[in-house]
Design a protein that fits this description.
MCP_dom_sf; repeat; membrane; 285 residues; 73% helix; mainly alpha; Mitochondrial carrier protein; MCP
Length: 285
């Protein structure tokens, strides 16, 4: 019996509820780190740092489950040797996993962003935000920024998943034993850091496109390329530095969250496989 990756991945949702840091990240991407901190606290004190976190929790469980399941499924389909996939096969599986999970839950991604940067009391909850956005701006608004999101998540997931699994398997062969928790944390931290540095400008553009049209965030971009161009050419603080605005809070959230999710996934999968083996041995022959 094979353990489904989606069954294990659904366990890790609770470890990624890094609400305050996620809130700072969203505001920082839309404006700037210090400005984001001041605006959040002025809007509602400490509770405001957790605004929109429920949407993040609701989103992350199915997203993680689908991502890990698709990665394993595509790897099984495409790899000539499932136990030793090539780098290109890992990258393909990671890209497919990112695209599938992002597209499937994208309306919740929009809701998460809007609830995080909205004024206190503007939305009564996830359902109200979905309904109000769809009524005021049409169903297309729930997919605003999807091309930018896919452009960021596909390379991010490809690099993150491929690098994590490559490091994990290499260390297991080198040490001749299964990686422990600290090793998994280290592999997850390194893979997520590399992926973040490689793709952050696209994540920044995604957040700005999602926020466009809300109070305080005028509609000023005509798509992903235009958003990146305007950000880079901003006279008041453009350049490469502007494309990485808000990356510090993003890294403070993403690196530990992704690392912990890998640990939970791997240890849960190992425990489930061990339990299945015990049940098989206990069955009468």
């Amino acid at each position: 019996m094979q353990v489904g990756s989606h069954e294990v991945a659904s366990v890790d949702g609770s470890v990624r509820k890094l609400g305050p840091v996620a809130m700072i990240e969203r505001r920082a991407a839309a404006s700037g780190v210090l400005a984001g901190l001041r605006a959040i606290y002025a809007a509602g004190g400490v509770p405001a740092f957790f605004q929109g976190n429920l949407a993040n929790v609701v989103k992350i469980v199915p997203e993680s489950a689908l991502k890990f399941w698709v990665y394993d499924w595509v790897k099984r389909l495409s790899a000539r040797d499932y136990s030793r996939p090539t780098a290109s096969e890992r990258l393909l599986a990671g890209a497919a996993a990112g695209a599938a999970s992002c597209t499937a839950i994208y309306p919740l991604e929009v809701v998460k962003t809007r609830m995080a940067i909205a004024r206190a009391g503007e939305y009564e909850g996830i359902g109200h935000c979905l309904q109000r956005t769809a009524r005021a701006e049409g169903l297309r608004a729930l997919y605003k920024g999807l091309p930018a999101s896919l452009a960021g998540i596909i390379p991010f997931s490809a690099v993150d998943l491929a690098l994590f699994n490559t490091l994990k398997e290499w260390l297991a062969r080198y040490r001749r034993r299964e990686p422990d928790v600290l090793t998994l944390l280290g592999c997850g931290a390194l893979s997520s850091t590399v992926a973040q540095l490689a793709t952050y400008p696209l994540a920044l553009a995604k957040t700005r496109l999602q926020a466009a049209g809300m109070p305080g965030y005028p509609q000023r971009y005509n798509g992903l390329a235009d958003c990146l161009r305007q950000t880079y050419s901003d006279r008041e603080g453009g350049g490469v530095r502007a494309l990485y605005r808000g990356i510090l809070p993003n890294m403070l959230k993403a690196v530990p969250a992704i690392s912990i999710s890998y640990v939970v996934f791997e240890t849960s999968k190992k425990a489930m496989l061990s339990r299945i083996d015990d049940q098989r041995r206990a069955e009468p022959r």
